Amino acid sequence: xxxxxxxxxxxxxxxxxxxxxxxxxxxxxxxxxxxxxxxxxxxxxxxxxxxxxxxxxxxxxxxxxxxxxxxxxxxxxxxxxxxxxxxxxxxxxxxxxxxxxxxxxxxxxxxxxxx
Length: 115
Description:
Radius of gyration: 30 Å
Number of helices: 1
Strand content: 15-25%
Strand order of the largest sheet: 1-2-3-4
Distance between the termini: 84 Å
Helix content: 25-40%
Structural class: alpha+beta
Number of domains: 2
Order of helices and strands: HEEEE
Number of strands: 4
Shape: rod-shaped
Largest sheet: 4 strands, antiparallel
């Protein structure tokens, strides 16, 4: 009979451990879900609705990432150059522009670079 009590006690402790682990797992899952929602909320603050660009639209190109050799200081460069015509919409966030060959940049730009 002594052996049965020990086994029963071990089984009870094991089931208690399993129940405790299930509870901890559920709490962790809820905390991760809340953290994910909070991160999404913060990330969405900086996002804005994008315009639907189509072929033939005329847009201005940001000079933020462009290098101009004739203007050594950023202060003297215009914020936007153009207007340039959209040649085609590559993706929802990428457009191909008609650019002068003197610009020597890739024709496909992200919509964050155009206005």
